[in-house]
Amino acid sequence: MSDTPAIELRDVIKRFGETPAVDRVSLQIGDGEFFSLLGPSGCGKTTTLRMIAGFEYPSSGEMLIHGRSMATIPPHRRPVNTVFQSYALFPHMSVEQNVAFGLQMQRLPKQEIAPRVSEALELVRLGHLAQRRPNQLSGGQQQRVALARALVNQPEVLLLDEPLGALDQKLRKEMQLELKSLQHRVGITFIFVTHDQEEALTMSDRIAVMNQGKVLQVGSPTEIYERPTCRFVADFIGETNFIDGEVVESDGGYSSIVTPDGLRLRGLAPRTLPAGSAATLSIRPEKLRLTTLEQAGPEQVAALPVSVELVSYIGSDTRITVRLNEQRTLDVWEQNRRSTLDRNAYWQPGEQALLFCPPDNALVLAE
Amino acid sequence: MRLYWPSEQGSAASSSCKRTKEECRLAFDLIERTRVQRDRRNLMALLLPGLLWLLLFFALPLLIILLYSFIVSGPRGNLIWQATVGNYTDLFTRAIYLNAYLRSIWISLLTTLICLLLGYPLALFIVRQPPHVRTLLLFLVLIPFWTNFLVRIYAWQIILANNGLINSSLRALGFAPIQLLNTEGATLIGLVYGDLPFMVLPLYAAIDRFDFTLMEAAADLGASRRQAFLRVMVPLTMPGIVAGSVLVFIPTLGQFVVSELLGGAKVDYLGNLIQRLFLRSNPPNWPLGSAMAIVMMLLLLAFILWYFRISREEDR
Amino acid sequence: MSQTANRVTTPAIERGRLTWSGVSLSLHAVLIYLFLYLPILVLIIFSFTRDAFGVRWTGFTLDWYVRLFNDERLMGASVNTLLVASVSTLVSTILGTLMAMAMERYQFRGREGVEALIYLPVVVPEIVMAVALLAFSALVFDLINALTGQVLRRNLTTVTIAHIAFNMSFVVVVVRTSLRHFDRRLEEAAADLGADSWQTFWRVTFPLILPGIIGGALMAFTLSLDDFVISLFLSGPGTSLLPVEVYSRVRRAITPEINAISTLMLLLSITLVLLSQLLQRRR
Ligand SMILES: Nc1ncnc2c1ncn2[C@@H]1O[C@H](COP(=O)(O)OP(=O)(O)OP(=O)(O)O)[C@@H](O)[C@H]1O
Ligand SMILES: [Mg+2]
Q: What are the boundaries of each domain within chain A?
């Protein structure tokens, strides 16, 4: 492995008209990485990908592939290939001809093209459909043809723009696993665009979360989920409870906040926050603990008296909304670890309980 | 239309009417038969008047010139009812006719090609405009398509004539005038001018349906713009290219107005010969003219079939 | 264009390529539109010139238009043309609409044959159709002469019959399109509400396909007005039609009077296209 990243973006800005679609994005993506761009619709993921592919050029900033500037390289001379969201298979060519297209463009001899095409089709398990036209294939099969068509060129980087977006839920799950294992086998850098957080979490080595053209955080799935650095990321990935307040003390990586309704809560503070500044405490529902009044809670954690308001049983979990006071409710998820039909084993609305918010499970984020 | 017998448990009515299945079926059949008869009467009332008109005033006349093409023309232009293939052998052996065929085919192909080369970029340009501009631009192509062909061709006389717009401008600037009108070049200009809309409209329809991400996909796979155009865009817009070419080729092959008004009738094209044989020459020769018209139709048929086969092969 | 203006920091290659292909395409389009419209403009302008040859600008006059209306031959030809166009449009629209209904609504044996017969007049070169009709009319007249001793000549009626055969196909094509877009559940709804098939047709189907029928009729009218080839072959010696009259004069010389009548013919066609477009827009 060399030190130069496979892809590097330096302060890249792309404007359409006045508003930037991509705003000062800097990224370094390593060789062989499965890297995801995640964000809500319209945040600039596709635009970023298209700039890497060469269909758009940055308004300013630099883009390098393996250290080589791409400023003057048109798409057909770039060592990257794309799997398009709509697949963009050539409807007038058979599966085989679609896959062979890139190799023909490189003017490889025929006897070299044929084996590589069949190899690529075997890789995506479509060898038996080589003579079909794209419109005679199912969505999943088309998707795999698009994959084979890109991979057969042995690109340095493969770009995938929501490649699973058009598939139904079940097929989507299957293809996620297949894509991941494929990437392992071929060892090519994948840049994967999605707005599905679960997909990004399960598949990626690293994720860049984007919003309004900006990259807010880059990190591994665990980092993104467990240590979001801003409110948007915490909110966009998974579910969370936000509690707004004012910092009253900070020490040794923790901060305490006090809310207008008088709660005092402690949590991890990634950045030291000065006392008096506004802050938000974020805690995931599954990381809160709810106990009956008799049971003991964790050591050194203040217990908050609450009443159970809503209970929804969803099989693996039970999702409970508890009320702290007139203005405030919080969500708590409990895993159903024990199999029982006993009503008393589950929370009932109206029950009184104690809520524990362990500081190591909570994050205090600047506004 | 077949009526199906409702299943027994599914239909309360049929069990309550207490008839046998057979009785009910007969009743249904009767209704069905009268319905079919009524339908047939309606169909005939709708179809027959137009159909008869077309048979009588279109199909029959074509058969008649087919018949005429196999009989002898008398010395005073009268018809002598005597079977012969002499008209056809004349066409294929006498240089004047053979040349007219070759010249007509040649200029039609040339016109088609020029219209294609001028029309494709224009259609592409129109497709790439925002919707309201697009409607306007298309409409501007449509207007000449609907306006009088003869008058539009005549307008070129004013431009190309010896004392016309171009030459009087040349003269005013101190240059020597050049012969523009009554040349084959003028004929070609007139033909392209007259038929260009026929090419642009089908091309527009085809390019509008074309998915431009396929061009990006081709570029992504290493195709230059030229390669992407030739390997992806051309085959996928082939239906428009074929339709436009057929629409330009057909009227061009039979034209005689343009070559008379702009070409000065200096050389004979098929249309000029046919017109002369029927209307002007003394004596007229209808059997020969009919044979020419029949061969022209066969040529067109062959051209259309050939072109569609080509495009379907491209498609496969 | 505003987009390119904003891309000031775009790398040179993209700027160069974008403007190159974009500008060359636009330039091409401008030239083509000039090519299409310049002759029409020239014609219109030179219908107002004082120059007696009609090819130079020597000042404005309306004389040629005045003279036009005093030209009895031209006016007679215009009346003839309008008459032929009106009658052939009426008949071909009725027959064509009925045929379109039959083709869209019924399955019957020999449908492909009828289909071919309908589309053939659209693709057969005009001159072939013209000589065929000429030969046919001559044959029929000879027969009548032999049987009854009457001598018939080609006249406006023969032209009208030919125009109907020619226009009908276009009407069928246009009306069929609008029938295909017609939602047949509306007819079922009308029947469900108690309308018989006659009422259903006049109250529901007809009003909804009317724009298509009018579109077809306008097309037939324009084609009939503009037709030169069939008119040349089928109009008799004494019954001149406007395009034929214009053609015979044009072959002799360019005159501002011809420019004027041509201008009027162009304006009429353009009005008709505008009308048919408006009708389609409303649908
Ligand atoms: N060609 C263009 N012209 C003008 N604006 C554009 C263009 N392409 C994208 N945009 C704008 O740039 C912003 C980012 O678009 P982009 O397609 O990158 O979003 P995305 O993150 O891929 O969204 P999605 O998840 O919906 O695909 C959007 O606001 C979009 O409207
Ligand atoms: Mg996108």
A: 7-231, 233-283, 285-364
